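Researcher: Quick one. two chains, 541 residues in total.
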Amino acid sequence: MATLDNHSDAPPERIFIRRHSLVTRITHWINVLCLSLLLMSGLQIFNAHPSLYWGQYGADADPSWLSIGTVEQDGGTRGVLTVGDVQLNTTGFLGLSGVGDGATERGFPAWATIPSYQDLATGRRWHFFFAWLFVINGSLYALYGFVRGHFHRDLAPTAEQLTPRHLGREIADHARLRFPKGEEARHYNALQKLAYLIVIFVLLPLMLATGLTMSPGIDAGYPFLLDLFGGRQSARSIHFICAWSIVAFVIIHVSMVILSGLWNNMRSMITGRYAIETERGEP
Amino acid sequence: MTFSIPRRRLLTGSAASLAALGLSGCDDVAQNSNVQSVLEMAERLTMRGQRLLVSKDTLAREFSEPDISPVFKPNGSTAPDSEDYARMMETGFADWRLKIDGLVERPVVLSLTDLKRLPSRTQITRHDCVEGWSAIGKWTGTPLGPLLQSAGLKPGARYVVFHCADELEQTMDGSGTYYESIDLIDAFHPQTILAYEMNGKDLEVAHGAPLRLRVERHLGYKHAKYLMRIEITHSFAGLWGGKGGFWEDRGYEWYAGI
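Model:
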């Protein structure tokens, strides 16, 4: 029992809580595998026609809002990314990559695609296989999340968390890289909850729905998808934007994992055990 | 915390193997035949899934005249490189003939005039290339189903194989000749037509003159151009690469609804 006079001198006590259930941990890592391979095989598929359009149709002669290609300038070839009216020199990364004689004209570079060389057929095989795995894995997670109350219990923000005052404080704390400690660390903070909810209920379902809208077979059976996204080429553009939004989320997510305690976070997503420091005497 | 070291080693190990997978290792994995056959399971799942979720006669969306692409990009062969084809082209395909044979009761030989005399169907549909682009065009042609019915399918008929006039890849043994195959569900789909007109004009050479297949609900490579012969078979295993089509023999899925 702590007494009043030594209370402040007592070292904080480290206790372990069970942070992630087995289902969350397994589906999380399968999802990591799926999304990585889906991204890389997706970039391979994109490279077969590295231009994006809005609307029902779109090909070489139609105006694209984004395209990756090459231009001849000053007696040499440059890789360029064109978005609307803006053209960026991306030699070495987009449009033209590889060194010396090995430099090739391709949308995304070899290190970012599966397989590394241009092979649309293999890219598609990988993409659709891992798309199925992603859907099965995601369905199991969603079923678990609703039935066992994971979404309601762990991810739904509380009313208090959504007040402007609370959100403002969290944003300020995040900016100073001050992460919750003690009792507060038992639960996700509001920014975390909102980010996870957007990924789980907006971005990932959008990836699936826009992916299906690119299938001529599915379009026949479910033409409302074409109306929902404004056409097959729009769906392809949204698919691309959502993919990079997920990449942006992953970059922030992994940064936060590292900054807020890499080993503690990794252990909790592998074994479920998460250490929190409480003042001695606290429950 | 006694477990922390093995765990850390496990983590470092996983990170290292993940990094290896992310580099050249991927190509070795991608080329491995066991890996290929596991990945191919997804194709069967996709086909079964789509056949379950989309009933067999559901039509692909039809668009209206203003939706037609200003430029319809020709792809694959744009001019078959053979003397026979050049000769037929000179005479406006007057001596071109389409043969329908194989597992049929009454093999058929049709001229372009014969085909145009049969009931026709016109549809404005979207053409989706496997590369990712799409174009909308208007097609007029003879529905394939009634044609096959009048030829009479023999028992055991399962696939309709389309033999084409173009060699997309120049080879000594002719294995670069374009061909495609569809099953009877797609063959009897109301929008599956043998098209001789595009956007209100005779089909251009770049788009498969004099006759090409339109099999809506499938990607572009299924829509065989420069049709010469339609063969009804029980299996396509004995044809060229055995996978049922020019692109299928080169790694693409036979089921092209996705």
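Chain A touches chain B through 50 residues (CB under 8 Å).
Researcher: Thanks, that's what I needed.
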